[in-house]
Amino acid sequence: MTLENVSADHLRQVLAHVEESAASERLMAALTYKEIDDVSQADAAELYGYSEGWASKWFNRLERLDTEPFEDVVYDKPRSGRPSELTEQEHQQFIEALHESPEEVEIDAPAWSVPLARQYLIEEFDVEYCERHVRRLMTEAGLSWKTARPEYYKSDERAQEAWQEGFKKSPDCLDDEYTILTVDQTRQVLSKLIYAWFPEGERPSLPVTGKWKSIKLLGAVSDSGETFFLPCEVNFNSDTTIRLLDALQTKFGEKICVVLDNASYFTANAVQEFVEDTPIELCYLPRGSPELNPTEECWRKLNQVLGNRLFDDLDELRDAALSALKNLEPPEVFTYLCP
What is the pTM of this model? Predict the structure, then answer.
């Protein structure tokens, strides 16, 4: 077991005497691993923005605290004249890593960005370059800055036109007390890529997936230009949909017409049963039609604010997302639903 011979008290004593932030982080990660049940090396490292490989290396090094002066263990030693740059072998390894998914080197992201590549160099080789230099290395490695297209199901344009024509007539069936709301969902990962680096000549696309660690949000835009956003602690399901509909009624009144997509958690039997004896009207968009939903514009604006920033943890990401959403200018609902 790693750190078996080093007590938590010993780690705290050493921590009280260190001044370098990097050394403090190593000790705090080790204390987290030692003192919290069911926390793995990978979990402890992730709390401080590092990989499991980093934890394994440093926790093994901290084992020497019982036999060596703590200054020799926790601080980085001068590297005997070695320049603070990659060796030829390390440079080649870096290039090979860039031509694979970041997940292949235990980085929780779908594609490479400059902050991610810089983090990899620090963790893997203990080499720290400025972002401008990392960007140059990525260009020399045969990568370029591109937009990745999300892989959505494509809807039939005729189906979209037919839906829009039908929706233009639906307000006539609702009395003046109804509020029309468009609803959508998003997941925001710790490093949201607006642009990313891909090998030259490749036409990149990224899967729309919830695989990476993320925050989850449900959002709504009203026909009067108001917005409502609901953070979700769990994956989207019929219960979260019902919770959202209940919250929308509390905010906008009992009579609401809700426009939403065909996700299973929106169309579930439990959702249909919930609205059955209420004045809630559900109106489902054609499959694969995000461009018809104005709430998607809120996510686009959110992505512009959060894009290509690397957040330390999900709490920091959630705070940044909710702050950005609070200040955005909502889109006009009817320019999307019935142009």
Answer: 0.50
Q: How far apart are CA 91 and CA 136, in angstroms?
A: 13
Q: Would you give the end-to-end CA distance of the chain in angstroms?
A: 64
Q: What angle do CA 129, 135, 138 make, to 5 degrees?
A: 105
The first and second tokens of residue 14, run together, are 């050493």
Q: Considering only CA atoms, which of 88, 122, 89, 84 is closest in space to residue 105?
A: 122
DSSP-derived secondary structure letter, 4: T
CA-to-CA distance for 214 and 16, rounded, in angstroms? 34
Strand partners, 284: 260
Contacts of 294 (CB under 8 A, 6+ apart): 182, 221, 330, 331, 332, 333, 335, 336, 337
Q: Is 281 helix (H, G, I), strand (E, B) or coil?
A: strand
In this predicted model, what pLDDT tens digit does every residue of 147-176 receive, in sequence order?
A: 555 544 456 678 778 878 777 766 555 667
Instruction: Show the 3-state SS of 123-183.
Output: HHHCCCCCHHHHHHHHHHCCEEEECCEECCCCCCHHHHHHHHHHHHHHHHHCCCCCEEEEE
Cα–Cα dist 198/101, whole Å: 10
Token pair belonging to 166: 């039908």
Task: Determine contact, residues 302/324, Cβ cutoff 8 Å.
Answer: yes
Per residue in 24-44, pLDDT (tens digit) is 888 888 888 888 877 888 888
